[in-house]
């Protein structure tokens, strides 16, 4: 997410005064969507195995290892990517929305009105904290 965000920010972030800390939903949606796509591809093999375990006949079940062996021997390594396109289409938009929401909340909490309450980096208030 952070790598994509860094790469697309110069091209997609629009700021009237050149401020780099401006909230850019377009940057966060692209970066979040890409992160969601990568997560979908990485988790797809486990999803294929899980689906096979759930749909196979209980009497022939040999567990996850047997499912992996059967997939490799009968269908080859590409079997682990079955349905990956649909999974990307399903997960990317949700990840984009989550990241935009997260970044928006972070941006709002960093503003001066909230900053003193929630984002205090140093302990400059006196609450009888005794640091040893």
Descriptors:
single chain; 132 residues; mainly alpha; 5 helices; elongated
Secondary-structure map with pairings?
Layout: H1 2-12, H2 25-55, H3 63-75, H4 84-109, H5 112-118
Helix pairs in contact: 1-2, 2-3, 2-4
Describe the structure in your own words.
- 67% of the residues lie in helices and 0% in strands.
- The protein contains 5 helices and no strands.
- The longest helix is centred in the first third of the chain and has 31 residues, at 25-55.
- It is elongated and about 65 Å long.
- The two termini are 38 Å apart.
Quickly count the helices. 5
Please trace the helix and strand order, writing H or E for each element: HHHHH
* Number of DSSP-assigned strands: 0
Described by the principal axes of the CA atoms, the overall outline is elongated
The low-confidence parts are: none
Largest sheet: none
**Overall radius of gyration:** 23 Å
In helices, the fraction of residues equals: 55-70%
Distance between the termini: 38 Å
**Average pLDDT metric:** 84
The structural class is: mainly alpha
Proportion of β residues?
Answer: under 5%
Q: What's this model, at a glance?
A:
By secondary structure, the protein is an all-alpha fold. It contains five helices and no strands.
């Amino acid at each position: 997410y952070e790598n994509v965000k860094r790469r697309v920010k110069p091209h997609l972030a629009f700021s009237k005064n050149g401020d780099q800390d401006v909230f850019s939903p377009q940057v966060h949606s692209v970066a979040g969507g890409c992160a969601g796509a990568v997560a979908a591809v990485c988790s797809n093999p486990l999803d294929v195995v899980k689906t096979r375990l759930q749909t196979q006949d209980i009497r022939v079940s040999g567990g996850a290892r047997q499912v992996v062996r059967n997939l490799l021997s009968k269908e080859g390594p590409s079997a682990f990517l079955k349905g990956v396109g649909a999974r990307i289409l399903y997960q990317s938009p949700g990840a984009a929305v989550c990241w935009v929401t997260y970044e928006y909340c972070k941006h709002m909490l960093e503003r001066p009105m909230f900053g003193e309450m929630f984002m205090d980096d140093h302990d400059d208030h006196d609450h009888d904290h005794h640091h040893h």
